[in-house]
């Protein structure tokens, strides 16, 4: 099945919680394994009760393996979590059965005025508790709060 220019809303307990937008949504239910394909990009938003966007996911390409409940996001993958942290990577997996998100690729996280980078990443599915492998980053330091060394002691 192939659908073009899709915008759909998803509700949870009668409240609209998500919006999915894609140029092309293909479902391959006779393939083994069966999967959904979003090869022209995918954009997902999560709303609060007043329809304000709380979190979002954007990817150049996405695949959903329905039997495994596994998402694979590829290309320029950009995610904003509920806390406003921004994640950027080229490949990300979301395992809904294990409630976890992971990647072995380079990832950059912008959080509260600092950036953390690394290769490899594991997180809960809300992307609020995570571990970054092979990390690097720059942390801002306020020079005015650092006391000069005491040169009077020998």
UniProtKB/TrEMBL annotation:
- What protein name does the entry list? LPS export ABC transporter periplasmic protein LptC
Q: What is the lineage of its organism?
A: Bacteria, Pseudomonadati, Bacteroidota, Bacteroidia, Bacteroidales
């Amino acid at each position: 099945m192939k659908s073009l220019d899709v915008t759909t809303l998803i509700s949870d307990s009668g409240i609209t919680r998500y919006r999915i937008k894609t140029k092309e949504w293909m479902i391959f239910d006779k393939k083994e394994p069966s999967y959904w394909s979003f090869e022209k990009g995918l954009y997902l938003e999560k709303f609060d009760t007043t329809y304000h966007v709380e979190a979002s996911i954007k990817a150049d390409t996405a695949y959903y393996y329905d039997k495994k409940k596994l998402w694979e996001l590829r290309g320029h993958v950009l995610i904003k979590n509920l806390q406003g942290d921004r994640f950027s990577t080229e490949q990300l997996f979301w395992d809904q059965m294990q409630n976890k998100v992971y990647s072995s690729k380079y990832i950059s996280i912008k959080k509260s005025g600092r950036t953390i980078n690394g290769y490899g990443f594991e997180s809960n599915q809300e992307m609020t508790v995570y571990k970054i492998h092979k990390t690097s980053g720059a942390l801002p330091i306020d020079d005015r709060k650092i006391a000069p060394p005491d040169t009077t002691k020998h």
